[in-house]
Design goal:
The protein has six domains: 1-98, Arc Repressor Mutant, subunit A; 110-169, no CATH class; 190-359, 3-Layer(aba) Sandwich (Rossmann fold), CATH 3.40.50; 367-447, Beta Barrel (Elongation Factor Tu (Ef-tu), domain 3); 488-588, Rossmann fold; 593-686, Translation factors (Elongation Factor Tu (Ef-tu), domain 3), CATH 2.40.30.10. It is 31% helix and 29% strand. The two termini are 39 Å apart. Bound molecules: guanosine-5'-triphosphate. Keywords: Cytoplasm, GTP-binding, Initiation factor, Nucleotide-binding, Protein biosynthesis.
């Protein structure tokens, strides 16, 4: 949130001008003291930027058009082949009548192949204009959109026509459902905020969620029955709040890694008799990476040892400064046990929601997100869906992930049958033909046929996404294949063996300066690289940097599934040099390691002439004689080197597989202890 006068100062234009622009966008503001949200700020910025833009000269434009034409020819060729291969009359392209193209007046018609769900950024790249130009045209079309927002097909058509192109749908993308409707501001109405509770183990997340549900629902309900459907709503003075019932940042980040960001507000629970703990910090980092609002609930204030002031003090270190100390974070003292402070907490959530103005259009076909799904004996596939926009009604045709069907029944968190469910409502839906996955989207459509086609497309998209998920950023490929004029953000997650080295790394990183690149540290901490780090990297497109630490077995496995680049270093200089090179695009596509396996030391014995031999058990993968080895003790690297011998009983062998025992000795290293882990790896060249 920013006040108009602050924005006016930043942009060097008058507050009046900003108010005018906003009013043109349908946003009413009272005065220069009023605040605007990020989206409005973005729109104002792009409008001013677009206005300031000098007209592109005719020559440049001509060049650009020629470039697009070459691209078009290629695309036409590609398209023709696809048509020939795949005849699908029911998917017939919904082609709009060619419109007369007025501007720019050059040569023949310029065809631009478009597909549903393109974003303003993709359109800008395709027609070689600035993103702000596209946003400007969208504003002209009375549409607010961010650069990465998927647009519906008719809007894409209108926008590219604005640029003087004749839009044509790509054959395989020709389904006519609306991918993401861009809302008309006038249709948006306030919706209940969606809240997730996070915090350290045992700080009282579950108790708090239960207490809120019990006090605010059960006592007032007829039979007092509440059921767990993954989320519930409470009502305070006629205003609703939606709580996601799966506390913790793991579930939150796992959803985000799948592209699903549902939460508006995170309630960070910290026990007043304990303090800020590792998972408190993790939760802050995960919530910040997701860009959601954080509110603090200092819990267990009924306990004799409660020291709420201490918690407030501790949290300032993480940028959460209470309002009463001049900061922006709302802190509420509560007891999930006695119920003290809970009303205030709920009021504060509503206040924050009012300031943030969470809105959605209730009038369109519904869109939602699956929180949970299961197969039930007498009910068939059941999915709990959180409606994000539109209204879902019994009888609506829906596609839910790869499933489809007609909504047979809608049941709310109190077990009550509903006829319809609007934005932010969690509902169980019955009537779909299979069990979808958590994180899948629900899309209501106009017909059964459309629902089935959509489900098929969703299935294909899921497969594509899986492939895309493997294409996570890597350090070597950081700047390659990207437009250098664009500001790039290198997102890092840092783990080190000690606080001292962590600070040294952070200080050195802060000194790296490169135009158009910003380095963001999403999280940093001491200890081995955990699954939670990998999930955060996956959800935020980040790279993990480890200093003298290694990933745990499960983190390693997850990283390979998610395609996360984990870089580990033993010398700070090397770490900093790699990052400096990466952001300059100088880091050569280098050798990266492939982990072959891990062996656990079960016992050690001294052998004359050879030295110390470790009797090992191969717990994962394999050990090969010519590979490199890293000795780990509690996931901290003790040594890196090479094997000097690999034996099965008395014989030298080339490799030993998982599940077998072997004797390993390491070149020039004898400080081996029982339970040490030998990580066996080799170096392979990687291409971007
Ligand atoms: N005295 C007191 N005890 C509380 C309060 N809130 C929770 N507890 C107790 O603290 C313990 C942990 O609470 P949980 O709600 O299970 O904590 P959690 O954060 O959900 O824990 P995990 O699910 O393990 O992450 C339980 O024994 C609760 O009864 C409180 O406000 N006051």
């Amino acid at each position: 949130m920013k006040r108009i006068y602050e924005l006016s100062r930043e942009l060097g234009v008058s507050s009046k001008k900003i108010i005018e622009i906003l009013s043109g966008l349908g946003v009413t503001v009272k005065s220069s003291l009023s605040s605007v949200g990020e989206e409005e700020e973005f729109m104002v910025r792009s409008t001013i930027e677009a206005e300031n833009k000098v007209e592109v000269s005719k020559e440049t434009k001509k060049e650009e058009i020629e470039k697009v034409e070459v691209e078009n020819k290629d695309l036409q060729k590609e398209n023709a082949t696809k048509v020939a291969i795949k005849e699908a009359p029911e998917l017939a392209t919904k082609e709009k009548e060619t419109e007369v193209i007025e501007e720019p007046k050059v040569e023949e018609k310029k065809i631009l192949y478009i597909s549903d769900g393109m974003t303003p950024r993709e359109i800008a790249q395709k027609i070689n204009v600035k993103e702000s130009e596209v946003i400007k045209k969208l504003i002209k079309l009375k549409t607010l959109a961010t650069i990465n927002q998927a647009l519906n097909i008719s809007l894409i058509e209108s926008v590219v026509k604005e640029f003087g192109y004749e839009p044509k749908l790509k054959e395989e993308e020709s389904l006519t459902f609306e991918e993401t409707e861009v809302e008309n501001v006038a249709d948006l109405q306030p919706r209940p905020p969606i809240v997730t509770v996070m915090g350290h183990v045992d700080h009282g997340k579950t108790t708090l969620l239960d207490k809120i549900q019990k006090t605010k629902i059960a006592s007032k309900e007829f039979r007092g029955i509440t059921q767990k459907i993954g989320a519930y709503q409470v009502e305070i003075n006629g205003k609703k709040i939606t709580f996601i019932d799966t506390p913790g940042h793991e579930a939150f980040t796992a959803m985000r890694a799948r592209g699903a960001n549902v939460t508006d507000i995170v309630i960070l629970v910290v026990a007043a008799d304990d303090g800020v703990k590792p998972q408190t910090i993790e939760a802050i980092q995960h919530a910040k990476a997701a860009g959601v609002q954080i509110m603090v609930a200092i819990n267990k204030i009924d306990k004799p040892g409660a020291q709420p002031e201490k918690i407030m003090q501790q949290l300032t270190e993480y940028g959460l400064i209470p309002e009463e100390w001049g900061g922006k974070t709302i802190f509420v003292k509560v007891s999930a046990k006695t119920g003290e402070g809970i009303d205030e907490l709920l009021e504060m959530i509503l206040l924050l929601a009012e300031i943030m103005e969470y809105k959605a259009n209730p009038k369109t076909l519904a869109r939602g997100l699956v929180l949970e799904a299961k197969l039930e004996k007498n009910r068939g596939p059941v999915a709990t869906v959180l409606i994000q926009k539109g209204t879902l009604r019994v009888g609506d045709f829906v596609c839910v992930g790869a499933a489809s069907g007609k909504v047979r029944a809608l049941i709310n968190d109190r077990g009550k049958r509903l006829k319809e469910a609007g934005p932010s409502t969690p509902v169980e839906i019955l009537g779909i033909n299979m069990v979808p996955e958590a994180g899948d989207s629900l899309i209501a459509v106009k017909s059964d046929k459309e629902a089935k086609l959509m489900a098929e497309k969703m299935l294909n998209r899921k497969k594509e996404l899986q492939i895309q998920r493997m294409k996570k950023p890597t350090l070597s490929c950081f700047v390659q294949g990207t437009d250098l004029s664009e500001v790039k953000e290198l997102k890092l997650i840092l783990k080190a063996d000690s606080q001292g080295s962590l600070e040294a790394i952070l200080t050195s990183l802060a000194k790296i300066k490169e135009e158009n690149v910003t380095i963001s540290i999403l999280s940093s901490g001491t200890g081995g690289i955990s699954e939670s780090d990998v999930m955060l990297a996956s959800a935020s497109q980040a790279i993990i940097i480890g200093f003298n630490v290694r990933p745990s077995n499960t983190a390693l496995k997850l990283a390979s599934e998610e395609g996360i680049d984990i870089r580990t270093y033993r010398v700070i200089y090397d770490l900093i040099e790699d990052i400096s090179k990466a952001i300059k695009g100088l880091l050569p596509p280098k050798y990266e390691e492939t982990i072959l396996g891990r062996a656990e030391v079960r016992q050690t014995f001294k052998v004359p002439k050879i030295g110390l031999v470790a009797g090992c058990y191969v717990v994962d993968g394999k050990v090969t004689r010519d590979a490199k080895v890293r000795v780990l003790r509690d996931n901290v690297i003790i040594h890196e080197g090479e094997l000097s011998s690999l034996k099965r009983f008395k014989d030298d062998v080339k490799e030993v597989n998982q599940g077998y025992e072997c004797g390993i000795s390491i070149k020039d290293f004898h400080d081996i202890k029982e339970n040490d882990i030998f990580e066996i790896y080799k170096l392979v060249e990687v291409a971007c």
